[in-house]
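Quick one:
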Amino acid sequence: MIPFHTLCPEIAQREVRCLHIGPKQDVDKLGPPPGEYAFMEFYCEDIFCDCRRGLIEVISKEQPGKVFACMNVGWESEAFYRKRLEWDPDAARGLVRGELDPLNEQSEFAEFFLEAFQDLVLDTPYRLRLRRHHRQFREELAKRPPGHLDLKSVQ
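Output:
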């Protein structure tokens, strides 16, 4: 998976979903530090793959280089993913709701960001945006010769 912004930088910059966390009122409250957290989109670079899912990394301007959470998300219906994931009936539900990616390291705040993603970020307009971004990503990918991605710009 590669970042959406490597192929569609203007759209990614204009349409990134962010979560703003203000100062804590109670010192005993657990949670991430105050700041702005962006939900960065990643999509599959295999032009022949039609998985219709993405990877979302939560990052912060205040702590560059740190990934606070890494989540899998799908924008199609549960029935769509259930057909593709017959061996694991629960996987479709998790993908549609958003779930922490088991292959990537998670921060101590990953569960917080997963709940925020599920409750605040992953609404119908955002699902439609992910679908559109995936289509735009694939269109841009198709314009490039195979194996010709500038991975230096992935940072």
